[in-house]
Amino acid sequence: MSLQMRKFSMVLFGMAVAIASFSQQQPENAGFEQWESVGLNTPEPVDWSSIKTSDNSGLNNLAPYVWDQSTDAHSGSYSVKLFNASVLTIVAAGTLTNGRVHSDLNPNNGYVFTNTSDPHWNTPFTDTPDSVVVWAKFTPASGDIAQIKAVLHTGTAKIPDATQANWIALAQIDIPNQVNNWTRFSAPFNYFNSNIPQYILFVLSSGGTVAHVGTTAYFDDLQLIYNPAELDLTVFLQGPYSGDSLMATALNPYFLPLTQPFSGEPWNYTGTESVPAIPNGSVVDWILVELRDAPSAAAATSAATVARQAGFVLSDGSIVGLDGSERLTVPVMISQNLFVVLWHRNHIGIMSANPLTESAGIYTYNFSDTGTKIYGSGNGFVQLESGFPGLWGMAGGDGNADGTVNSADKNSFWSILAGTSGYLPGDYNLNGHINNPDKNDFWQPNQGKGCEVPE
Fold this sequence. Notes:
By secondary structure, the chain is mainly β. Helices cover 9% and strands 33% of the residues. The protein is built from four helices and 30 strands. It has helices spanning 3-22, 57-60, 407-411, 436-446, and strands at 35-36, 44-45, 67-70, 79-83, 85-87, 90-92, 95-97, 100-102, 111-113, 131-139, 146-153, 158-159, 167-175, 179-188, 190-191, 199-205, 216-225, 229-234, 241-243, 246-247, 283-294, 305-314, 319-320, 328-330, 337-343, 350-351, 357-359, 362-366, 381-385, 391-394. It has a five-stranded antiparallel beta sheet with strand order 3-4-17-10-14, with no helix packed on it.
């Protein structure tokens, strides 16, 4: 892989991936603390709307009030109170949405929807949460069910919708019984496909399918839950490998930087990982972990990148977080198969040949087990110990991190710095010094090796 191509792909995804890794979207005004006057007797919560601000202006004056601002809150000062009310012979369910209500004299024809052409009636959203949570109190009449639905979707969508057009995922909370005290309820998102969401649409209701007068529901502290993927990864670097499944830690602690070293080219990683001190004596170096969500290894190109995170690789090959002991956890939802790419500052990048296996939320992969665990023909990695099954690792000698070991790695990153010490790209055995072993033992035998990670 050329430096030009690596720069191009990393620049494209650096900003978006950093946001995906460390920032998770939540509902707007989820605690119902902010309210505004919209010309009605009762204010509406900011970023939420009711049946009296529907798209049918002819019915809005006839529609009853089915919501109120309540000081009976789970947290903060307010919650939203929904209640069923009648007008003429029709019972309207207490309804609140972050989209807009489409009202009709026939209740069966009413729905809430995302209006993509007006920001007042839509909530842009591109994350993939695991579940939705709400705190609620509920007093039903005649079998009413309090309900919360959340739909991730593209384009315009509505609830209900028998066709589920443009739906990506649905989470639904049903509360059928009386709840006198504030109680936490949750439901998982059921994903129908792997499309990237554009919007999220909520509807909160005190009536469910059939509404009866006398039902009251209180809702507060709506929240989306993201369960991070826990990564149990093992890899060895050729340079510091010392035998018996161990690597030397000569850079630790004096030469290792306290901030992740992948902010420059070709990685352009914008993560802010840093430590006040190297957490333990087993740390070998920093490593950048990249997650790709794809149907197959060949399809796991840079376009399939969903997250990146920097961590430490320890002497026993395990990759850990900034505390130096716990596994990396990355907030990401995998909809197809998870493939992992590992980048190091002067070893050739590699990718898992197979999807990672998952058990109890932990994704496990050992890159060192056998050469078939690393994607490609073998040109981008090396065998560290012979025998069966052998032990494999990342090949050293790539001083400029362009994915190829060639004369530039010797002339520009070894020769001109030979005899110096520090955290340097030409230090291929990671002992803190640039000298002949770096050239003779790593650069020379690895000439011609190249990265086989799909672009």
